[in-house]
């Protein structure tokens, strides 16, 4: 009689290939397992201040940062309530599931939403963005909201081109950017690109647990904050500015900062920020090479059809007609202990996602790709075998 428990998973360490949260380096886990300290202790204050300066270097800003206990959605909400008033209008550039979520949050907060629609597989047309801004001659639009890297579709948005469109039309709106799945993985230049509020989270490229988020805030945005009238208390930047930490209305999550100190050391000192970007780009090319190889024989294909917009932190993969992405993910997890990301919103069951951001290397990517190919064979998904060889060729 088979005594294996019904829900038993294969032995060995799980290959976690979700696009967030991401793998946490052992040294970061150990650093975060720190004894409790007073968050006003001078020794902790020194670590806290160093971490804030490190975040500024990763954001490439010399301006302001506010931090919150909460996921990236908390930082989204903090940006809205600190910059806008009831009835204000924002322009959302459609990129996928998370741009729609940001729009829904705005509506729930009493903000009017205009959108620039886009084909999720090709990305928003910057000319359409320019036209929408030019049409707003009365400057009703108070903020333009962009998702730098759309996790749901595996597509990056050229934020610098959005800023150029705003400048070309002379539009004074604030530029808000979601960097949650890009920061620390893809190059982001807050000051150079004229971003007024950059939303970030702990659990992706920064290689920390979920639960802390932050907003990089320009001096222009801080001026706009002075006249914002949306209700706020915990997220109120004015309240935060009265505190020693200039953030956190309440208890500071001290353990995050010991982990963040180590994560910044790994990013800046052990590897180097620009080398981090290069590594992500190299590994992303390998994943895409494998998928493009599998696409023969009517196999899965890259969801993103615009090579200029390929994401270097996550690849979304469209299943062949008639095959369920979630069924494939279940085979990969239950038989082989590889965790893949699922499709979000209207892409549920149609797409699976491979995250390649944060703490990962070539063996981890190749192991994931090999197991995806094995799962496709077990599940009877049509594909051209040999995707791992294509990934190896891309890496070599």
Account of the protein in words:
- The protein is an alpha/beta fold.
- The strands form three sheets. The protein has a seven-stranded mixed sheet with strand order 2-10-9-8-5-3-4, sandwiched between helices.
- The protein has helices at 26-32, 42-59, 72-83, 97-108, 126-135, 159-168, 219-225, 237-241, 254-271, 273-294, 325-336, 362-379, 387-395; strands at 15-17, 64-69, 89-93, 112-116, 141-147, 149-150, 155-156, 174-178, 197-201, 212-217, 301-302, 314-318, 338-342, 351-355.
- It folds into two domains: 26-268, Aspartate Aminotransferase, domain 2 (3-Layer(aba) Sandwich), CATH 3.40.640; 273-395, Aspartate Aminotransferase, domain 1.
- Helix content is 40%, strand content 16%.
- Helix 1 runs antiparallel to helix 9 and helix 11 (325-336) packs across helix 12 (362-379).
Radius of gyration: 22 Å
Helix content: 40-55%
Strand order of the largest sheet: 2-10-9-8-5-3-4
Number of beta strands: 14
Q: Describe the main β-sheet briefly.
A: 7 strands, mixed
Q: Briefly note the CATH topology name of the largest domain.
A: Aspartate Aminotransferase, domain 2
CATH architectural category of the largest domain: 3-Layer(aba) Sandwich
pLDDT averaged residue by residue: 96
State the domain count.
2
């Amino acid at each position: 009689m088979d005594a294996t428990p019904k829900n038993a998973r294969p032995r060995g360490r799980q290959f976690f290939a979700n696009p967030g949260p991401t793998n946490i380096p052992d040294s970061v886990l150990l650093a975060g397992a720190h004894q409790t300290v007073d968050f006003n202790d001078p020794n902790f204050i020194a670590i806290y201040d160093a971490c804030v300066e490190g975040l500024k270097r990763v954001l490439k800003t010399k301006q302001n940062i506010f931090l919150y206990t909460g996921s990236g959605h908390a930082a989204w909400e903090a940006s809205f309530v600190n910059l806008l008033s009831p009835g204000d209008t924002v322009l959302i550039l459609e990129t996928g599931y998370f741009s729609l979520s940001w729009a829904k949050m705005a509506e729930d907060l009493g903000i009017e939403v205009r959108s620039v629609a886009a084909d999720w597989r090709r990305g928003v047309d910057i000319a359409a963005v320019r036209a929408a801004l030019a049409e707003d001659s009365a400057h009703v639009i108070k903020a333009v909201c962009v998702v730098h890297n759309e996790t749901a579709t595996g597509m990056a948005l050229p934020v610098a081109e959005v800023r150029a469109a705003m400048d070309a039309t002379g539009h004074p709106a604030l530029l808000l950017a979601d960097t949650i799945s890009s920061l620390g993985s893809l190059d982001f230049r807050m000051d150079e690109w004229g971003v007024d509020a950059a939303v970030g989270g702990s659990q992706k490229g920064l290689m920390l647990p979920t639960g802390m988020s932050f907003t990089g805030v320009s001096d222009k945005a801080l001026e706009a904050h002075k006249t914002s009238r949306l209700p706020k208390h915990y997220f109120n930047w004015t309240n935060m500015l009265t505190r020693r930490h200039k953030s956190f209305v309440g208890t500071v999550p001290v353990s995050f900062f010991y982990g963040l100190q180590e994560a910044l050391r790994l990013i800046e000192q052990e590897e180097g920020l620009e080398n981090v970007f290069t590594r992500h780009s190299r590994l992303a090319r390998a994943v895409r090479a494998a998928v493009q190889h599998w696409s023969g024989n009517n196999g899965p294909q890259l969801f993103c059809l615009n090579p200029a917009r390929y994401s270097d932190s996550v690849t979304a993969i469209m299943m062949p007609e008639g095959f369920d992405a979630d069924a494939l993910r279940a085979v990969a997890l239950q038989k082989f202990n590889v965790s893949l990301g699922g499709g979000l919103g209207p892409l549920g069951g149609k797409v699976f996602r491979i995250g390649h951001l944060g703490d990962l290397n070539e063996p981890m990517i190749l192991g994931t790709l090999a197991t995806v190919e094995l799962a496709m064979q077990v599940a009877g998904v049509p594909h051209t075998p040999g995707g791992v060889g294509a990934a190896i060729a891309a890496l070599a």
